[in-house]
Prior knowledge:
The chain is mainly α. The chain has helices spanning 5-13, 41-59, 71-91, 95-113, 118-134, 139-156, 160-179, 188-191.
Amino acid sequence: MSATLPDELRDTAAAFGPSRLPDRDELFLAALADEIAGGSGPALALAVEQVYEGYLAHYRTSRTLAAGVADAPRLLAGDYFYAHGLRSIAAGGDVEAVGLLTQLMACCSFARLEQATLSTDDDLWEMTVIAVAAGRGSPARGMATRAFAAVRAAISGHDLEALAAAAASGLRAVRGGRRSGDRADAGSSMSSREAGEGGGPRPSSVTGGAG
């Protein structure tokens, strides 16, 4: 992964208030960027990290804004990160990845509104990151797409237990596909990280909570 990625995230956040440099272990794609085929790895990694930062700024703890930044600029920063990340991916022509990430954000918005366990978000995020890194048309992306269908069904029924189960099942399927050769060992260091609430490996930033 480009050594400048944390700097780019911090520099973007600086437009919205005091900012800080994220640690490498706070980056979701730190272990996956080198596995992305072709030369798109660093750009895709940055874009996904921007979408993730948008999620954190809205619902948990930002990795790039200093503590004490007021709600209005924090939420505005989150909107910017989210939109800019998706726009960058779309500009690269990966419509499939944009679709997965927009589904992810919609599902996480519901989960936060309904105060589902944070592990549900974490499972969905890891599943989606693995699938996006695996590349267009990969088995992992097909698995993630099917998992989101089950997640949407649970959301339609306002069934938080079914939602958590669908998220966990989707993550297991995508991990299994990766181990069987879809992207062998992509993100293996993610699997060695300290788990966030409820289980799966997460960057340390996902254990926080923002208002």
